[in-house]
Amino acid sequence: MKKEDFSERDKVVKHNIYASVRRRDGLPHNLFAHYWRDVHSTLCSRLPGLNFYVQQHFDRDHYANFWPVADGVGRIDAALDGSAELGFANLEDQAVFAEAGKILYGDESNFIGEAVAYNLPNGSTTFIDRDADAHRNGPDPFHRIHLYMSRKPGDESASWLKEVATVLAGHDAVVKLKLHLPEPYDNEHPAPPSPNVDHIVGPDRVNLAVAEIAFASALAARSLFASTEFKSVQKDQARYIDAVGVYLVTGFYTFVRDGQPTLAGVRGSRSAALIQQLGAANQLDDKVASMFGIR
């Protein structure tokens, strides 16, 4: 029996931002993670214009760079602690958020050492998504990676990556595959322009592509690598890709979906998890929600 595909729910997002994040030097990882998912997230979730907002936290210390690399392809070794994806239903909403979002800039230096925001004026593409939970908030139950690829200039690399994504999304081992093909990053115009935070990238992260790929397990991922489908596309890797880096996701947190803050977006990720764990239904009452600025 074929498993259900929920990728249609992402099509409402027409334009988005993919941001890579590294924690501030000297800040313990748990403080960084808690502040990002409980404090910064609730401020961002309340801003107008935002249709979709997800954080994915990476495990910097866990070796995930096992993606098979063809001869002639290098490695991206940037130390990163997570990504944020912000989506918009139209350009007008994105402009509204861009103006309101200036309030976030002063907060980023509290916990972020490097933030790099990549613009996707045509949005991203979800090729497959078999995860029924649209409001996921907590430790990631899947073996999920973000595959960073330094792609060669020109349209050919983008076309090849779309073809590869289509092929890999059809494999039984793949639970989700989402492809981000942003505009080349411009170091002359750092984004976001938050003060006291680094926004400059090296050559291997200027013309970037990112694939979010989730598997049921690490063993399932290995089965993909051994497949004829993977080998059929991997042989052309060096023709279109200069370098790759792989980041393991440990936490997946959804704060805004379909233009509405989730429980995590209103109360913070850990508070929302406690409410759900205890079955505290009274906390979902409209009168309680109104106390947190939600009508």
Automatic annotation (TrEMBL):
Record InterPro entries: Dimeric_a/b-barrel, EthD_dom
Gene3D superfamilies: 3.30.70.100
Pfam families the UniProt entry points to: EthD (PF07110)
Residues in EthD domain copies: 25-112
SUPFAM superfamilies per the UniProt record, alphabetical: Dimeric alpha+beta barrel (SSF54909)
Coiled-coil region(s): none
UniProt name for this protein: EthD domain-containing protein
Organism: Paraburkholderia hiiakae
